[in-house]
């Protein structure tokens, strides 16, 4: 374990599991209530019926699929107790719905029969892009898929806002950043730190990148000060006086390095921040915009949907300017050889694929840098769509 990495509190996580499992066990007992709820929300379509095997769980949410006699399935998305911070669940769901332009069914007054906020949306057919790319025979469609993903990134890039945070409609009915940022890290700290202090969290949008990076420093410092233990990996069996002494030295070294790292990060903020755009504009950034959350038609290679825009925020433009994660598509080939994700040795096949991946990444970064140079020099400010994979 890295001396600088701070793991979340495993005991605190276990308490979340104690909340989740009873809820999960009793979930099907509420299915008739959920069917009636969906029927009422979408009146005129007939009775909604739960689709067998129509429950899909993510890291924080559960999606339940319902069908109608007239066709057109829908998905009900709810935060999962024990995996989502209770105080943030409403804000999290409303923010996601706002970014989806689907706020009709998500406001502060509406809850599902389970007492949880929700999003009710059309069910989008398609196969997981990650699973599809791991299949034999997907290579021919890869260039088309890359172009579609590039288009998604560019469309997001052309949206810009004057502050950092989440979107909602303002008094004029226009989309604007009116909500504070709620990031994945913030939520992870909330569920990974016992009684997580939130008094330093912003309650309004942030106006510059410097303030955002300073807030990130404060989050990690708060995590460090609120550790109940140092999560030090000890030796197995009985400890001698010598090993105890060594452990104490390691603990002291770990604590010192963790503090220095967080202090040093604050001093590096000027390196992360570009003075030209410290005050914006700020660009939408979706941390989970990758192959796990994209659906594709396996016959045509057409991307049919993006199923998770949770924790999307208008963010400092550095986030959107990093080489897009379309480069990670080649990792799907590597993942096929080592689905466990932890290869200790490179087999001959894996080594060949690894070389392809490295070359592909270098080519993609060159294309991205060339596109960015053209963007800087074009008075229209529009990115050039590059051909190729």
From TrEMBL:
Domain Aminoglycoside phosphotransferase: 55-317
Domain of life (superkingdom): Eukaryota
Record-given protein name: Phosphotransferase enzyme family protein-like protein
Organism, scientific name: Apiospora aurea
């Amino acid at each position: 374990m890295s001396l600088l990495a701070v793991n979340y509190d495993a005991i605190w996580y276990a308490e979340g599991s104690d909340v989740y499992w009873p809820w999960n066990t009793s979930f099907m007992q509420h299915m008739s209530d959920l069917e009636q709820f969906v029927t009422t929300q979408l009146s005129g379509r007939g009775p909604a019926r739960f689709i067998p095997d129509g429950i899909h769980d993510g890291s924080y949410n559960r999606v339940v699929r319902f069908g109608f006699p007239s066709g057109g399935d829908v998905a009900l998305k709810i935060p999962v107790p024990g995996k989502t911070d209770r105080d943030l669940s409403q804000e999290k769901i409303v923010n996601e719905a706002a970014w989806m332009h689907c706020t009709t069914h998500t406001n502060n007054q509406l809850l599902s029969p389970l007492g949880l906020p929700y999003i009710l949306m059309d069910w989008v057919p398609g196969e997981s892009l990650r699973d599809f790319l791991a299949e034999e025979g997907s290579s021919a469609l890869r260039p088309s898929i890359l172009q579609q993903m590039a288009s998604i990134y560019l469309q997001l890039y052309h949206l810009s806002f004057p502050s950092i945070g989440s979107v909602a409609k303002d008094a004029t009915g226009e989309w604007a950043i009116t909500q504070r940022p709620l990031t994945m890290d913030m939520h992870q700290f909330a569920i990974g730190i016992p009684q997580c202090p939130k008094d330093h969290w912003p309650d309004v949008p942030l106006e510059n990148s410097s303030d955002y990076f300073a807030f990130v420093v404060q989050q990690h410092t708060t995590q460090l000060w609120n550790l109940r233990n140092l999560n030090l990996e000890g030796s197995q069996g009985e400890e001698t006086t010598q090993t105890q002494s060594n452990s104490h030295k390691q603990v002291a070294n770990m604590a010192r390095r963790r503090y220095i790292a967080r202090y040093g990060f604050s001093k590096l903020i000027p390196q992360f921040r570009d003075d030209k755009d410290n005050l914006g504009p700020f660009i939408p950034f979706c941390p989970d915009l990758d192959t796990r959350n994209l659906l594709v038609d396996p016959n045509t290679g057409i991307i049919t949907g993006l199923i998770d825009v949770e924790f999307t925020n208008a963010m400092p433009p550095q986030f959107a300017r990093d080489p897009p994660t379309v480069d990670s598509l080649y990792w799907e080939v590597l993942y096929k050889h080592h689905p466990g994700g932890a290869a200790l040795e490179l087999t001959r096949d894996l080594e060949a694929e690894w070389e392809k991946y490295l070359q592909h990444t270098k080519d993609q970064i060159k294309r991205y840098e060339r596109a960015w140079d053209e963007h800087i020099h074009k008075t229209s400010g529009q990115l050039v769509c590059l051909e190729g994979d």
